[in-house]
């Protein structure tokens, strides 16, 4: 069985959905599982709904209505007959969202986030499944929350592999075209959980692992894995082949094409991952699999924007050693800070983090009780894998370098 993952850009409007059909006709859709994200920027729009719920309920109705209108427009473009059953199915899903926002009593942001935001994927797959059936491509719609079971760490849930394996084996018919959602799971109480932003790639890998799939293909609006993000770098080059190890390194440093968690289950069963263009589906794209290194071997540039650099030093010039470093990492963990770079000396400790959950101020107040703290917000962390002098020089030009760290294969620069 094959697993295909289609992201938000590939289903952002009616024409995009018709293009998914073209892709399936080009490459075949027998014995295939489709993992599909929310349409376009729906996840961002659903986050706006959650924020309105917490910060300004007078804007809540308008935020929900904007999401409904967006999907309603796509529905009318795909289904000229507005009596088609899919209209009622989508309405039911949005009624569930609005109902939850009325009766919910929990004050926990993470819990509410997961119950609301996940409807983007449920709606997109409902529409795609109905359209495929309408044009004669029979498929089975599956609720991924009945497949992937997790703990209750909302917004960043951990998979229960044993329960997930049992569900996948029992509920997925490998002989059919199946459609399900990315990003989502459910806990033991059957509340929706999410696997972290960009978690749809991870979903595809989880299901591929449990299905012993032949391959996974991630369909993107780029020709494959590039050596740099074209949004930030002018000259980019397609990487034809990447080993699991190299891809994991790139993902760890923040390469945006592949989710960091995606590669681990695939590598364990040596399931090849293809990253291909949904615009030119016959093009080879990039293959990630068992092998050596990267081809072609060129410098790879990765940038993480809106990071925070904290420089800590001891108040009394005492050494920062194992016990204090251990305490620092516990604080970072407790405040859900993703650590992207660390550097320490005898009396100082520098760390570049992603303030993903907005707990920076709380953490700084705690740190200032024990350390002298200087911090820089809104910095960028650049990483160059397989660097050369020309690559470093071009990146440094015209930038204020706050911190540099260099190894055998990798150099990292924190830039103001």
- Portion of residues in beta strands equals 15-25%
- Approximate helicity band: 25-40%
Low-confidence regions: none
Q: In angstroms, what is the radius of gyration?
A: 23 Å
The tally of strands reads: 17
Specify the overall morphology: globular
User: N-to-C SSE series?
Assistant: EHEHHHHHEHEEEHEEHHEEEEHEEHEHEE
SS-based class = alpha/beta
Q: What's the rounded overall pLDDT mean?
A: 95
User: Largest beta sheet: what is the strand line-up?
Assistant: 3-4-2-1-7-9-10-8-11
Helical stretch count?
13
In whole angstroms, how far apart are the ends? Answer: 47 Å
The largest sheet is: 9 strands, mixed
Describe the structure.
With 416 residues, the protein is of the alpha/beta class. It has helices at residues 14-27, 42-55, 60-78, 85-103, 109-117, 119-134, 161-171, 200-211, 244-253, 263-268, 322-334, 360-367, 389-396; strands at 2-6, 32-36, 140-141, 178-181, 184-186, 192-194, 215-220, 241-243, 273-277, 286-289, 294-295, 300-314, 338-344, 348-354, 371-385, 401-406, 410-415. Strands 3-4-2-1-7-9-10-8-11 form a 9-stranded mixed β-sheet, with helices on both faces. It has a 6-stranded antiparallel β-sheet with strand order 13-14-12-15-17-16, covered by helices on one side. A two-stranded antiparallel ribbon has the order 5-6. Strand 13 and strand 14 form a beta hairpin. Helix 3 (60-78) runs antiparallel to helix 4. The radius of gyration is 23 Å and the shape is globular. The relative contact order is 0.10. The model has no long low-confidence stretch (mean pLDDT 95).
């Amino acid at each position: 069985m094959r697993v295909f993952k289609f992201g938000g850009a590939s289903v952002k409007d009616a024409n995009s959905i018709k293009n998914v059909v073209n892709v399936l006709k080009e490459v075949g859709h027998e014995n295939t599982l489709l993992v599909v994200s929310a349409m376009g920027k729906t996840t961002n729009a659903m986050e706006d709904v959650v924020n309105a719920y917490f910060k300004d309920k007078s804007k809540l109705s308008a935020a929900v209505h904007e999401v409904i209108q967006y999907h309603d427009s796509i529905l009318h473009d795909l289904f000229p007959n507005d009596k088609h059953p899919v209209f009622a199915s989508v309405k039911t899903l949005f009624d569930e969202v609005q109902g939850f926002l009325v009766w919910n009593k929990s004050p926990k942001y993470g819990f509410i986030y997961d119950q609301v935001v996940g409807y983007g994927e449920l709606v997109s797959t409902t529409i795609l499944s109905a359209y495929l059936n309408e044009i004669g491509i029979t498929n089975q719609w599956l609720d991924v929350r009945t497949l992937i079971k997790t703990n209750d760490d909302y917004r960043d849930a951990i998979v229960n592999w044993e329960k997930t394996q049992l569900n996948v084996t029992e509920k997925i018919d490998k002989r059919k075209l199946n459609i399900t959602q990315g990003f989502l799971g459910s806990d033991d109480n059957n509340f929706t959980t999410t696997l972290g932003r960009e978690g749809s790639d991870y979903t595809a890998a989880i299901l591929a692992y449990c299905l012993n799939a032949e391959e996974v293909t991630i369909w993107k609006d780029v020709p494959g894995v590039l050596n740099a993000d074209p949004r930030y770098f002018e000259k980019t080059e397609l990487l034809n082949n990447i080993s699991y190890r190299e891809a994991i390194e790139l993902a760890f440093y923040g390469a945006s094409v592949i989710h960091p968690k995606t590669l681990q289950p695939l590598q364990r069963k040596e399931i090849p991952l293809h990253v291909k263009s949904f615009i030119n589906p016959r093009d080879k794209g990039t293959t990630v699999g068992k092998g050596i290194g990267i081809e072609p071997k060129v410098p790879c540039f990765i940038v993480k924007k809106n990071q925070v650099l904290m420089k800590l030093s001891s108040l009394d010039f005492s050494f920062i050693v194992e016990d204090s470093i251990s305490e620092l990492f516990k604080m970072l963990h407790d405040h859900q800070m993703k650590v992207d770079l660390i550097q320490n000396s005898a009396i100082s400790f520098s760390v570049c983090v992603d303030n993903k959950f907005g707990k920076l101020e709380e953490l700084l107040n705690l740190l200032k009780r024990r350390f002298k703290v200087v911090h820089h917000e809104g910095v960028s962390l650049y990483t160059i894998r397989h660097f050369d002098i020309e690559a470093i020089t071009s990146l440094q030009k015209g930038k204020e370098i706050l911190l540099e760290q260099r190894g055998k294969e990798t150099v990292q620069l924190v830039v103001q």
